[in-house]
Design a protein that fits this description.
alpha/beta; Rossmann fold; seven-stranded mixed β-sheet; two-stranded antiparallel sheet; 6 helices; binds S-adenosyl-L-homocysteine
């Protein structure tokens, strides 16, 4: 998968490439899809949700320029695959999933694979995880129609936030928090599932 799809897609960071080689993606998809686990596409994981395309997982991870000592927040745990990739690269991963059975399944898969530096929580990721803030990086894998203010607030100075923003086709946006404010960069167009809010708040 890495030689056929990830490297040709332009990913260069050797640590990200090593993580993509190491994490067994077939363990994060339902058995019926395990034959397709190493093809570069999204796959259904139940509850109308999908595991993201591996080349997108790799490129979103790469632009965050993660360090071994980083503490990272992920919104939209899904299968737990992106969390596992992050766990290979940083000190601590906190991940929030709104669909409880997906959160439980992801937690189990991550535990079976021996990841001890990931915590999974069921809840509304729009609100972030204030008790654990600040975060060196935040990655959102479901699309809100605007950047959630709590995520801006929970980003460390020097921190990076990547997220798809919009309805339908979304813009993948990267923010850098500096001492003065936030620098925004639009990266590419993507299509993630929408970030849902409890009771349509
Ligand atoms: N990162 C995942 C794929 C994410 S799919 C992986 O590696 O498999 C997007 C996920 O975001 C879905 O599981 C969906 O249930 C979840 N989600 C949607 N709205 C959310 C919210 N408000 N808070 C937390 N998770 C949310």
């Amino acid at each position: 998968m890495v030689d056929q799809y990830i490297i040709p897609s332009g990913v260069e960071d050797p640590d990200v490439i090593a993580a993509m080689r190491h994490v067994p993606r077939h363990r994060f998809v339902p058995d019926t899809y395990s034959v397709s686990a190493y093809i570069d596409g999204p796959l259904p994981i139940g509850h109308s949700q999908t595991i993201s395309q591996p080349s997108l997982v790799a490129s979103m991870t790469e632009v965050l320029k993660l360090k071994k000592t980083d503490k990272v927040l992920e919104i939209g745990t899904g299968s737990g695959y992106q969390a596992a990739i992050l766990a290979e690269l940083v000190d601590k991963v906190l991940t929030i999933e709104i669909v409880e059975p997906l959160a439980r399944q992801a937690e189990q898969t991550l535990a079976e694979l021996g990841y001890k530096n990931v915590r999974v929580r069921t809840g509304d990721g729009y609100l972030g995880w204030p008790e654990e803030a600040p975060f060196d990086a935040i990655i959102v894998t479901a699309a809100p129609d605007h950047v959630p203010q709590p995520l801006f607030d929970q980003l460390a100075i020097g921190g990076r936030l990547i997220l798809p923003v919009g309805r339908g086709v979304q813009t993948l946006e990267l923010y850098h928090r500096t001492a003065e404010g936030y620098q925004r960069k639009a990266l590419t167009l993507v299509r993630f599932v929408p970030l849902v809010r409890p009771e349509n708040k």
